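Our preliminary data section would be incomplete without showing what the modeling component actually yields. Below, a chain of 230 amino acids is followed by its predicted structure, encoded as tokens that our downstream tools consume directly.
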Amino acid sequence: MDTSAYQQLAQDKLGGEFSDLDLLITALTHRSYLNEHRSTVKEHNERLEFLGDAVLELVVTEFLYANYTEPEGILTNWRSSLVRTESIGAAASRLGFEPLLRLSRGEKRGTDRARAQILANSFEAVTGALYLDKGYEAAKAFITENILSTFAEILKTGSWMDPKSHLQEVVQAQGGSTPQYKVIAEEGPDHDKTFTVGVYADGELKGQGVGPSKQAAQVAAATTALQKYQ
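Predicted structure:
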């Protein structure tokens, strides 16, 4: 196997060469890849993901505790916004992990949503690999540069709030009334329904969303409405 691309990633984006490059390669190996390469590949990235998740939570929690005096509930929401799938998946994409992911042929053809989750998991796994190979401070520097650096924008945009709460704040700040959600359509059998929900402010439709439950559709509608306000 040609390992030069992994060596280049380590050199350019991860603070220098790995003592054990196999750790980094494993961090970018999805479990599906083993099904097609059982004779040559023995481990996938889920154990490293488990470790990296804990390191990520600790670094983010330490940062928030040291720099902010807000109540626990707000700090928890801020931490959630920093470590959620979308945030760490976007970081993995910026770092160029996707072309180096080792996936089965089926997973390569997977949905965008599935790929986003795989990228997020790979970020955690690489964090775990960094921790093992270079230590806590190296992992902390990696998280600081790629995750904590986004926090000012998260605060500025209010994206740390759940979409419905954020929309309510935005609408009321502009002198509007509390957003109202209405089911526009229901499709499918009872055990597999799809809901379309509209969100209205001052009687005007601001956004629509679709989901497998009314709550999920409301969140999708609020997200759409926020994009219009922004």
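The longest helix spans residues 112-134. The chain has a mean pLDDT of 92. Preliminary results of this kind motivate Aim 1 of the renewal.
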